[in-house]
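Cross-posting from the modeling subforum.

Setting up a comparison between two proteins and wanted a second pair of eyes on the formatting. Protein 1 (sequence, then structure tokens):
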Amino acid sequence: MKPGILFYVFYALVQFSPSFAAPQVRLGDTTVTGQEISSLQQDFFGGIPFAESPVGKLRLKPPVLKTTLDEKEFDASSFGYACVQPPPFPAKLMAEDCLTINIFRPSSIGPDSKLPVLYGGGFQTGASGIYNGTGIVAQSMARGTPIVFVSFNYRLGPLGFPQGSEADQLHSLNLGIYDQIAALEWVKHNIASFGGDNEKVTASGESAGSIMTSILFLNYRIEGLARAGIFESGHAMTSGASHPERREIDWQNFVRGVPSCSSLATTGNTFSCLQAANSSDIIQGLFVSIAESPELFPWQPVLDGPDGLVPDYASRRFPRGEFARLPFIAGTNLDEGTIFEVYSRVTSEDGLAQAITANYSPPAVSSQTLQSHIQTLLQLYPDNPALGSPFNTGNNTFGLSSVYKQNAAIFGDLAFQSQRRFWSQGYSNADVKTYGYLFTEPPTGTPAVLGVFHSSELLALFRNLTGVLPFPVGPVSANLSTAMMDYWISFATSLDPNDGRGTPRPIWEPYTCENQASPSSTQELVFISSFVTYRR
């Protein structure tokens, strides 16, 4: 059973205006009934399972693709449950049975419409219902290039990204990414029934969704499931990568927090017990593990061997040419690190060095080499508020330690800015067309201490997404929002952000390493209040 429409209203703060003419599609022997959003001339289908429920013996296992629904009539008029995650997400709105997919489409289209598909969504938090596709579908219709928008859930935390040697031995690593592959396979098999073209899928994502999508781009299997990508604030190495044994203690803390399995925490034989545990015990273990972890994000992708999704570091795979030759848009926000560090307890450079060691300690280098590089890093990013993030705020420390701005600048560049450029340069060297951007528009009404923080571009891109960023949108920002949507829609429909339709906007040139070498010109489009321009 799924929660009703109030579930969506609660965490996306967007109400649909249903009519009595509910849209229907056939999936095999099942009639799937959605909801018509009459005010926008759109249809919504939500909470459709794309995999078998990952509970019991299927808990901590790769997803099993759901090829048929289990009933003759399926109510798809609302979103499904969010996957299990920590507060502040309300417990009553989440469940383990969460592997569902949602579809927004223009009304009155049929199986033969073959519209292009824009598909996407921390490894600890998130839900597909947060990404409301009505705004971007409406803009696609207004500009004469209609699309179908798809979002999905994937398992989070220890259920989606198990850590430790036992998970490695049982081939149960990176399950959340396998969930994404299963969702893409479901789209491949079923999106035509909703009027989408399974040969014109653009896989997009933000933050963890972007990291996961970029990991798929390091695997040739993505080429049969999507033809392009959009990476917003995240790439394969944003979260780092390590062997699963590195976070053995995090797995033990998780098991120790599950009352029915706590005595087995250090035995290396925990999966059978965890598969038999009830969901409330599992959730309790999640809370314990997060409270005990010294890292910001202990549950994330790991190296999983030659036959896995992450067989080696991206820095090694690029020179070997081990990546899919698919075009993409990739960008970041000006102050990516602030929202992660604003509540940090780090107030000294010694503490900062320890935090870097805890979060970024690659096994390929010795401790001495690591510490040497950390000291070099601290010299390049000195404790000088005028140089820190949020950038362009002078010596203002917003009542916090000056180390906050130093820490935010390091984390933002290390995890996001450098990774975006690494990917763009690697693809450019392989003659694959990519487009880069930097989002620099502060959301109206947000605290200045955050600057242009991680995820703040979502308000512009989805426009109606007030549930994520509940701040007013001024008329200039509305113009910026329309331009961003036009670029994204143009790319999804034609593999080129410059189709000439919609809002008049500058030509977005492809990213090239040659232009990067020039100090007077870079090929990154900058989204600011004065509309859009090139970074100079």
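Protein 2 (same layout):
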Amino acid sequence: MVCIHLNSDPSIASEIKSEYPDPAVTRRNTGYALDLLLQTSPYSNNSNNNINLAKLIAGSEGTLAIVIDIKINLVPLPPTEKVLCCVHLKERNEAYPANLIALRHNPDAIEMMDDKILDLTGDNIEQRKNRFFLQGNPGAILIVEFSGNSRKEIEGVCESMEEAMRKEGWRACFVPRSKKFG
């Protein structure tokens, strides 16, 4: 009913525009989103946006219509396994070329810690326990994070990266206490 009247009586559209909250307000809990309808075709001559009834129905909290069939766009669940691979470098400036090698293996994240940070962790009672994977006194470490749906899958990627790092003279090790999430 309202849709028919929006086009037939310009005063209705004008009243909606003046009485509804500012469209910049992201939390929209003021009832029917009729103002959003006005921004779509066929209700706006200047709009290329097609009407989206989901915006209207979602704001009505079940008072406007009953939806009996719906199609949603689902996204995949995040990976269930995560592994850290730590590359031990002699000097901090080796982190730049090592980072480029790591990037070829599509990691989720890369972080570099230099010897100054590592030394501070050795002097800190709380952080000392987090140094269990360090081998010797590296000038820096590159912490490379990979995730996937199977441990075997991501360990294969880590082994491939580790081999590439070894060719450059750097050591890499898996962090054995990698966590499971998801």
